[in-house]
């Protein structure tokens, strides 16, 4: 973040460095369907209506398919733009016409599309399972996940799988009208609504490029991209309490003047960023996960998500230069790294994560 300094006694009012919210609609729609809308029960009927699915298919078609690129990172069970065609709950069964409880979520995907394990675990079942057709069940902790109607199975019972590992291919085996993934989340073998589970995993599954970019911001802002970066204070030292920052000022003598700033954490967020984003992102504290979400929100607001996901570092830095002083393309004179330094570190991070 840009260092906004309060001189003791007189407040030095600085411009708000954040641009007004100007959402990138493609991004909003694509993630909205998969994450936000699915966890709002009032919206589910609308989301799962065929009309909306068709609309989405036309809107998300041009999105970069970033998930699916790398094993072990993916927490979504199939291709990123697969629309939900049937939700969890009572419905008219598409084949029998009976009113029946649907114990999972159906994602429409083409025949042969990858099915990913949403989390690490052990394959409890891999084979044919009645109406489910070819099915994989992965046991995580008390939670297990089920993937039904597959055309091919790539795992066998007892096998250990990684988060995001491709375990099967989408098909239409069992009681099915066309290729789709039937995805279930079971807690102690009882099917649960997968929505909150997907929200949780989706929130923690940034693409390798996004994670490399975030790491580079952390390094540029604090000198390190490791876990320590999330506890850095603006002038020196670290903090331990994620419940109070970035609402506490740190003061230090700079050029003979005592100056104070609230900037804290891996992305040097200010108190005003916290007051703005905490209610919008529903953050409970300033934990590393919250800090990441805040950073991604600024990337989104400045319409740089697509640039990050496309690996276009230069374009992303130009759009975000007003947000983070450590980026080139601003004139804050607060020790910005050069474009060359950004490139080098980013490429290292990408090689490490990709
Ligand atoms: Zn189903």
UniProtKB/TrEMBL annotation:
Matches recorded under InterPro entries: Cell_wall_metabolism_enzyme (IPR050570), Dup_hybrid_motif (IPR011055), Lysozyme-like_dom_sf (IPR023346), M23ase_b-sheet_dom (IPR016047)
The keyword Hydrolase is annotated on this UniProt entry: no
UniProt keyword terms in alphabetical order: Signal
GO terms for MF: metalloendopeptidase activity
Residue intervals of the M23ase beta-sheet core domain: 100-194
Entry keyword annotation includes Signal: yes
Superkingdom of source: Bacteria
Coiled coil: none
Protein name (record): M23ase beta-sheet core domain-containing protein
